[in-house]
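Run folding on both entries below.
>entry_1
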Amino acid sequence: MTLSDQYRTEGCAVSFELFPPKTEEGIEALCLNVERLLQFKPQYFTCTYGAGGSSQRATLEVLKRVKEITNLPVASHLTCVGSTVEQLCEYLTQATEIGVDYIVALRGDPPKGTEEFCVTEGGLRYANELVELIRSNFPQLGIAVAGYPEVHQEAPDATTDLDNLKRKVDAGADIIITQLFYDNADFYRFRDQCEAAGIRVPLVPGILPVTNFKQAQRIAGMCKAAIPASLEVEMTRDDSPEHQFRVGVDHARQQTTDLMKNGVPGIHYYVLNRSEAAAELLDGLQTAGSAS
């Protein structure tokens, strides 16, 4: 099944994003959480890696384990940061050898301590160039790219950001997975803009169920996502872990049910290697897997 085919199923397709733990104990815990998430019949799992490619090898190890546990397709993140074209191709070769099915192709953030993205000599400058590289040299791999409902923090305006997204799609991307957002109105506005721009591939909203307000603030600051006033008021009303967890999960569940009612082809959950919040918000919902 191709990546775009994952979104031609009846119902709403679900996928989960992981990141590579630093210890063997962390990997074991991740595997347990993956097993718990299988009850929601996800279409695939993705795995990111550390800044500048610091945990690329661990990413492939995690994906290999996940594929063994689930027998599902898996996707690796891949960025242009710190890599030559030759190194990118080496990674893609290793990924295909262990059975990676899809790539989430990103330019990548500037390395920690720097403010601007710098092209590696012999490397790539933009994500659309990475998409072209994959499509030309590894045509069997599905390709996801990132979209930004609230505009990428480096883009001068929404029009420029949308033009950049269209270049990635025209280069051969199969689907778009969005940056997290807390207000569905931002996603619907973005969806309308993509439609008007002639972007026709599946647009998959990305949801992070936040379980404490400090986490929400930190992540919002990193990715330029606005926190709705109603969510801020409710989360700051009580700083107990139980209250914070419940409010965050309830908000993500409300986002999920509203997105499903409004016809999204799927939802990608950033689960931070934990299953509790995702399990709570998805319990009883009619996803693509539960509809089959």
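>entry_2
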Amino acid sequence: MSGDVIVGDRIRGRAELLDRAARLASAMAAAGVGAGDAVALLLRNDFAVLEANLAVRRLDAYGVPINWHWHPTEIGYVLRDATPRLLIGHADLLDGLGAHIPEGLRVIAVGGSGEQPDYDDWIAAHEPHEGHGNGLGSSMVYTSGTTGKPKAVRRLPATGEESAQRARVLAVIHDTAPGNVALVTGPLYHLFSQAILMATFAAGGTVVVMERFDPEDCLRLIEQHHVTHGALVPTLFVRLLRLPEEVKGRYDLSTLRHVVHSGAPCAPEVKRAMLNWWGPVLYETYGSTETGVVTKISPREWLARPGSVGRPVLTGEVRIRGEDGQWTEAGRTGDVYLRIHGTPDFTFHGDPEKRAAVEYDGLITCGDMGWLDEEGYLFLCDRRADMVLSGGVNIYPAEVEAALLEHPAVSDCAVFGVPDSEYGEVLVAYLQSDEALIPDEVTAFLRGRIAGYKIPRHLVVGASLPREETGKILKRRLRESFLAGEARETGAY
């Protein structure tokens, strides 16, 4: 089983996957894909994701993973902006695009029988590619467009040492080793999930890929395949914790050793509950599409410093830049700047000015704010874009959200600012709850935990909150709904 990849009830061995990837590289080359070219990937969790990523690296090309949950117009924007030589996608996803596929773009369908060439037939018609690439290929990833169009983070061509350093960082982050059995729980168009797939396969481990996440199925797969490693976003922890106690106790999870979580903040009480259930196996990481993962914290370290996302690994560096534009000392809040030195650099595709704007003194900001303690552990406050200025005072919604999540009837929440004629901005809180919440009781609950000026002026209760697959709440959608007056129909206070 070592080195296999398992998707549902299908298994492909390492030798077969490498052979298919080499044949796919030949097919791509015959279609005109060369060094520096882009190949768009509109793929669900399947073997094709791994094969395509291995193939583009042989050609020093770029894989462009596309979030297939996006609207066809958003996908069409990516296909025009990235100017790929080739689009590989699952047939049903391609069928929904229609005229959004640029004219002249060659399309290969996985599992289809329509007008496009079939992926498996296309691979079988070519001999394995003999080259292995020069380490120049990588990825071009479009991050979710929270303020307009998605932006593309494109890795620059890497030297051999930069590629080796990137591999060393991934090995540390995911604790990779030949005997590992890793479970992929999230969509492979996201680098968080893709990283553990690629790193585990490269190290000779076995990878079990969930086609879609189901909490009990996750437990079943851990027991069935003796899973040792994994990667989850915090929203999946919440879904797991909601399982009935008899279901939780039904499965043997004793093989778990190292489970990474990242992608969104994790409420402290959620993490403690998971640690009490799964044991000391949860390792939190922090970084971004631009920087890659930079910090990591072990269960033991986190219990001593709850709320921290860790210290830099290997050649990583984290510094805090204050409002005066200078680096601050420990304990002061400011913009987080970070980097893993010696790994491949990046640019924003078609926007070098934006790339220059996020760098200072050799480090990169992702828009987060936070502070460092005396030992160099990083604590995050919030996104700068989410910070609210109310009555001349800075308020970090993440702090208010953490207080709300301590309420036993609040299962999820989102806090953001909206314009106000008197204070400039005031806070709105969307609460997910299965119970009827009384506004005065929620306010009284908060008064015992945060300052009065941080208490939301408006509360909205709903059955669920919109989230990306990575677990991030779509606050823009909630803000637009509130400002349009739609929220009052769902119980605004």
